[in-house]
Specification:
- The chain is an alpha+beta fold.
- Helix 1 packs antiparallel against helix 2.
- It contains 2 helices and 12 strands.
Length: 249
């Protein structure tokens, strides 16, 4: 039987007749409020029931898949509530399905929204924010350690190059000082050798001219002393020449 603005069904049974009128069908007048009931993933349970009162959810590094179970507070016809969720830009309709499967998660922060609607199309929306932690080697503490290591290495390289330059400078100064010292010894030795050579020559002439003189022995003593000094000066000149690289060892 069909009536205007209503549909009526009459069904016979052993216990009598069942009459259904669509105009008498009850609809939910309450707007359901959605909430996350349970979150699992990677073979473990992350959150469940009361632990989901906090809407800032944090997941460990390496979490790539999540299974999120929904529910709604609706005192009439809760089984008819329709669900949808939003993780990016678009809403995804779930119908009456209360389970969400999220895959291919990466580290970062996510704005997660869920919505439940009654059969009148009246909806409630709830926001959850969850974070997938970065691995330890990408954490702020790791980056701080990397920075300290880089600064330390840079400082050590700077000190190494500076010490190397100082060592080269010190070596150059030592070479210059040795050259100056060698030159000074050579000059002094030459200054000594010239008058000693003259003294020896004159003493030798005097000895030959005064061979029978009583002062001959004294002159010989002067000649011997001058000759010894001349030999010492010549030895000094030899050492100076050796230091200067003029004599091959």
């Amino acid at each position: 039987v069909i009536r205007k603005n209503a549909i009526e069904y009459i069904v016979g049974s052993r216990n009598g007749i069942l009459i259904h009128k669509s105009e008498n069908q009850k609809s939910s007048s309450d707007t359901p409020k959605p909430y996350v009931r349970k979150i699992t993933g990677n073979g473990k349970t992350y959150y469940e029931n009361n632990s989901l009162e906090n809407q800032e959810l944090i997941f460990e590094s390496g979490t790539t898949n999540l299974v999120i179970n929904l529910s709604a507070l609706d005192f009439e016809l809760s089984e008819q509530s329709n669900y949808s969720y939003k993780l990016g830009e678009d809403w995804i309709d779930l119908g009456t399905n209360q389970e969400i499967n999220i895959t291919n998660l990466t580290q970062g922060k996510y704005d997660f929204k869920i919505k439940a609607c009654n059969n009148f199309g009246e909806c409630n929306e709830v926001n959850y924010n969850f974070t997938v932690r970065a691995p330890w080697y990408k954490s702020w503490l790791a980056y701080l350690i990397y920075s300290i290591l880089l600064i330390t290495i840079a400082w050590l390289l700077y000190r190494f190059n500076l010490d190397k330059k100082l060592a080269v400078a010190e070596k150059q100064k030592a070479i210059e000082f040795d050259e100056l010292k060698t030159k000074m010894y050579a000059n002094i030795s030459h200054e000594f050798r010239t008058p000693l050579t003259l003294i020896n020559g004159l003493s030798k002439v005097l000895i030959e001219e005064n061979s029978n003189n009583k002062n001959t022995e004294k002159l010989k003593g002067i000649h011997r002393s001058g000759d010894q000094l001349l030999k010492l000066v010549n030895q000094i000149l030899g050492l100076v020449s050796f230091d200067a690289g003029k004599v091959k060892a």
